[in-house]
Design brief:
Elements: E1 14-15, E2 34-37, E3 42-44, E4 51-53, E5 60-67, H1 71-77, E6 81-88, E7 94-104, E8 108-117, H2 132-146, H3 150-187, H4 191-206, H5 217-255
Helix pairs in contact: 2-3, 3-4, 3-5
This protein binds zinc ion.
């Protein structure tokens, strides 16, 4: 995986100690120094600020370096990227990060402060109100995304929508279509990316032979948020609302302020 900063679409799996979805913002912003010295020791002036979402315990935790590649080995093979092993301070599980080498010096190997998380925290979703048929395919969709299989994720997202159309019927399908348009306006998604999202999610409804377009990591990240929103809107929001109203009715009944229309009551 290349992590060139010139990419128009930054890889969402890449981390950065300045700003990223997966790490905390650093204050104050300084020019960071990260290097391996000739004794194979890692020097990192922002080490105390290195925080990310642990893929094992899912807490936002500081991580501590526990294994650094040998300076001699790196000098010999001069790889473009090096892997470092950290330990989660919260659960002590190993966390693997990949860094790009900036420069091979005679006494130090400079690394870019940007890193890629080799294992990512699982994408989570509350499936409480989601029907089993939809849950089964959407869970797999989220697993595909977590593992960076972005086009498998797109295919499973289409199947998730098909399961939802099957469950919700024609009226539900139209509602989902409206919701997708609402998301475009709310989130201000670029027109070309939105067209792809629409093709992934609804393409098979308009033409069963329509292929699933190929997505890169950035587009998959947007599709993830859109798909989560559609499933949430279709089931979770409604379920929560109905549950809340039920509870409210129950308490009104209990306190006697709810006037039941049934004469047989009581
Ligand atoms: Zn942990």
């Amino acid at each position: 995986m290349h992590t060139s900063t010139a990419d128009a679409h930054p890889d969402p799996r890449s981390g950065n100690m300045d700003t990223t979805r997966y790490t905390q913002q650093l204050e104050p912003r300084t020019s960071m120094s990260l290097y391996i010295d000739s004794a194979s020791h890692l020097h990192h002036d922002q080490e105390k600020n290195l925080v990310l979402t642990c893929p094992h315990c899912l807490t936002v935790s500081h991580i501590t370096p526990v294994a650094v590649p040998r300076f001699e080995d790196l000098q010999l093979y001069r790889p473009n990227q090096v892997g470092l092993v950290y330990m989660c301070d919260a659960c002590h599980a190993p966390i693997f990060l990949r860094f790009t080498v900036r420069a091979y010096g005679s006494s130090r190997i400079e690394l870019s402060p940007q890193f890629t998380e080799v294992e990512r925290a699982r994408e989570r979703f509350n499936f409480t109100y989601v029907p089993e048929d939809v849950e089964r395919v959407f869970r797999e969709a989220l697993n595909c995304y977590t593992h960076g299989a972005f086009n498998a994720f797109a295919s499973m997202s289409r199947r998730t929508m098909q399961a939802m159309f099957g469950d919700l019927g024609e009226a539900g399908r139209l509602r989902l279509f409206d919701e997708l348009n609402a998301v475009r306006d709310l989130a201000d998604i670029q027109p070309d990316i939105f067209a792809k999202m629409k093709s992934v999610l609804f393409g098979a409804e308009l033409d069963p032979t329509s292929p699933v377009p190929l997505l890169d990591g950035y587009e998959a990240g947007i599709l993830l948020e859109v798909a989560k929103d559609l499933v949430y809107e279709a089931y979770v929001r409604k379920g929560k609302l109905q549950q809340a109203i039920l509870v409210r009715r129950f308490f009104l009944d209990e306190t006697g302020t709810y006037i039941t229309p049934l004469s047989s009551a009581g």
